[in-house]
Amino acid sequence: MDGNYIIGEDKQFIAGTYSRFPVVFKEGRGCRLYDYEGKEYLDCGSGIAVDIFGVNDEEWKAAVIGQLEKVQHTSNLYYTEPQARLAKLLCEKTGAKKVFFGNSGAEANECAIKAARKYGEINYGKNRKEIITLKDSFHGRTLATLAATGQDEFHKYYDPFPAGFVYAEANIGSVNDCVNENTCAIMIECIQGESGVNPLDVAFVKHVEKLCRERDILFICDEVQTGNGRTGYLYAYQAYGVQPDIVTTAKGLGGGLPIGACMLFDKCRDIFTYGDHGSTFGGNPVVCAGAYSILSRIDEKLLEKVKSNGAYFAEELKKISGVEQVTGMGLMIGIKTKKTAAEIAKQCIEKGLLVLTAHSKVRLLPPLTISKEEIDFALKILNEVISG
Ligand SMILES: *Cc1c(COP(=O)(O)O)cnc(C)c1O
User: Fold this and answer.
1) pLDDT digits 0-9 by tens, 133-170
2) Strands (E), the chain
3) Ligand 1: distance of its center to the CA of 2 in Å?
4) Mutational pocket test of ligand 1: of 251, 257, 356, the residue with most ligand atoms within 8 Å of the beta carbon
5) How many domains would you assign to the chain?
6) Model pTM above 0.90
7) Ligand 1, atom 11: closest residue by C-alpha
8) Range of the domain at 18
């Protein structure tokens, strides 16, 4: 089997929603991946912030295989040990009171939207259903989360969308203008990932929190991309010194298997009752056993390493000629360059480095375990490509 054969089959049989790079990965270890021709690549994308301990991680594999050898699925009609254990660990680490598990970031956000609307209705009546999100946000690909996404290009073809989303600019005046008696929640990403790794202002995020407290509006942080150690904090809201009422996460939590979590804090801890929401696969025991292995290893030592390696990576990037701006936090890095991001990503891959793009920027989301030597290797290639 060679790579080109697989690419041909894929093009013939897979729905054409993805513009893929012409590479087929066969295997890997840590931050290194190998294609069918045996070419080595350094991974600075982690499968979009997913493989936070790299690929082929022994501890995660042992947890997953251990559970696979017991039972792979039971449905949510019954209790399972891995699901309860993972929910307890998430609550212990964050102060959340209850967790709902789905299978993706979009599903975690759907759950948050449902929780906010139920909270609005039971406390303030039928009309309190509006959710404020931000321009340039990204919250997922289901119809409701596309509606929540504040970018026009995501709103073609698929209308009518669920109503009730209002888009504010990421500034105090704009969000104040959007709030009214029908607002049930404000949902933000502390660092907007998909639209270019743009961190929100601390003062703005603190204002959103205050506004929510004053008016009993639920404050939702979408930590699908920023969560699980990516920024050098377990969740990015912790860097902002705020306390959300709902936190959603996914991507890195599963270590490569699909999971989404909606964490409910004090105010809405008991918002859901039997029959309010559900999922066949959500909280699957194999996935939860793997996620427990991931979450339990995101400790202070790893977070400190993410902070220092991220700072080093960003500082060195700023020295490259052709780099106009470096944004982000920890190992979530956006690079504004003179050349187009697409061109840089293509040239990097030819030289054996995997990077992502985010609108007009190059986006780096390497495994959290990336070493200093690996960062230096990435910098060398980025330097050649960006300044060349
Ligand atoms: C990726 C992402 C999502 C969607 O997650 P899926 O698992 O693809 O559904 C939602 N919000 C943010 C901030 C994301 O980065």
Assistant:
1) 999 999 999 999 999 999 999 999 999 999 999 999 99
2) 25-29, 32-35, 40-43, 98-102, 130-134, 165-168, 183-188, 191-192, 198-199, 218-222, 246-249, 260-264, 323-329, 332-337, 353-354, 356-358, 361-364
3) 32
4) 251
5) 2
6) yes
7) 139
8) 3-56+299-387
